[in-house]
Design goal:
- The complex is a heterotrimer of chains A (about 375), B (about 80) and C (about 110).
- Chain A has about 375 residues and is of the alpha+beta class.
- Chain A has one domain (about 35-360).
- Chain A has twelve helices and twelve strands.
- In chain A, β2 and β3 (about 80) form a beta hairpin.
- The longest helix of chain B has 19 residues, at about 50-70.
- Helices cover about 50% and strands about 15% of the residues of chain B.
- Chain B has one domain.
- Chain B has helices at about 1-10, 25-35, 50-70; strands at about 15-20, 40.
- The chains are: A alpha+beta (about 375), B alpha+beta (about 80), C alpha/beta (about 110).
- At the A-C interface, β1, α2 and α4 of A face β1 of C.
- β1 of chain B pairs parallel with β4 of chain C, so a sheet runs across the interface.
Amino acid sequence: MTVDPGRIDELRARFSDSGLSSRRVEVGALEDEAEAMFDRGWTDGLPVVAPTKARVARMLDGTTRSPGDIVTLVPPSLVECTIEKVAVNAVMAGCRPEYLPVVLAALETICTDEFNMHGVLATTMGVGPVFVVNGPITQQIGMNAGINVLGHGNRANLTIGRAVQLVIRNVGGGQPGGIDRATHGSPAKLSFCFAEDEGGSPWTTLAEDRGFDRSTNVVTAFCGEAPRILVDQKSRSADSLLRSLASGLLSAVSPRTVLAMDGLLVISPEHMARFRDAGWDRARFMDELGAYLMVESDEILVGAGGIEEGLPESMGGLTLPKFRPGGLLVVHAGGPAGLFSAIVGGWLNGPMGSDPTSREITP
Amino acid sequence: MHDIDDLERRGLPGVVVASDPFRDAAKAQSEALGLDVATAFTPHPVQDRTDAEMHAMADDVVDSVIAAITTAPSM
Amino acid sequence: MNDTKSTTREAEPPMGMMLLDPTSEIAPSGRSRAVRMASLEGLTVGLLDISKPRGNVFLDRLEDHLGRRGATVLRYAKPTFTKPAPADLRHEIASQCDAVIEALAD
């Protein structure tokens, strides 16, 4: 017998006690397994990779944890989800085994009271978990923090986010049209996961800002909509660009919301250069930005400007921040050329909604 | 079985009528397809029967055939 | 070595691909049947002849029974019992009928 690793995995799955306990589902010889998986409702609308025993066994090599260990309770059904079930769905999403620890940490991050994945799934607003990954693992597994960072083309970015969503759908039972009744939905519901460009940034990373060491691998989950581009191709000073970004941020979700929704700002390398040239660090940036994100409540009261949406009359005469303290997350990512940044609007924050949540990624 | 499986997917209630020895094969095929395809069975063999015998077989199985494609109870 | 190989081959399942269920396994792994009506009254029922000898005699009699129970019967035949019906025939049945009976496999 030859030493073909693929063949070894296949034989191991067939002849050894693999310790895998998932129900076996046989697809008939005349059936197309891709079609069979669509028919069973196992996919997100895109084709999935067939979760054979050999592939799942190989996926489980990506973690030191046992297949039977419980990862978390997955909403909406709040059923116990094992490492094995995550591995099955990670195979289907197209993950490589080395992505599995990120998938597990991402899942654990959102299945918490703070993040409130149940509410995020059930809301009619088109939001989903947006994952930002920090630490050396992003380079080790080949995540993208550069060109097309929020778009297509990178297997790790896309399949990690997709695997988490497939777990919610298949294990948790969060089917669109069932518990998930989003009015429009959003690409964030398929997969929205990317790495921060740490090496190219003069600032501390998002994970550092949230209390982690730079050498630690961390996933941060933010409940957000699809990204929107903020264009500014003329500003040459930090202050001009800051005012420009702030005016875009004020319109996130609605110009009429203050304090209720968080935001995620993705600054591009070319925009970041303005702040680096001015010698601003993250703290200076946040401080100066905060001043431009103050809103006179009289301008957004019910009926102001002929618009019936707005703050109640009782809140008149106040100056309020667009975002609550800690409610604006800022990361550095994107391709080297392009005077654009991106804003991801959030959802209802705090105990009634979802709080940004971070977690260390462990093997 | 594949035909009925496909037509059930399109929303049509369906039933396969087969002779007795096909019970096990039908069960295995249903499991493979992921759909418990409705079945009704006649005695075996079929091909050497007279017309009268074929008619009697149809008379005997018709109630279970109808029960398989409606919610009417089998008699 | 040859013996081992032939044993390996025999141990392989004769058909199909074996998948691991990605769900919580609370629900059955299969699909559910199409919704059934209470009776045949007013329904158009397709009789699909799989084209085995003498199946037509059985289907003629079945057609009489179904007609008496209030169904309109349409007859179809697939070209050969050895293969699934062609896609256009299945589409024709699906667009013309409310229910379908396939017979007679022996």
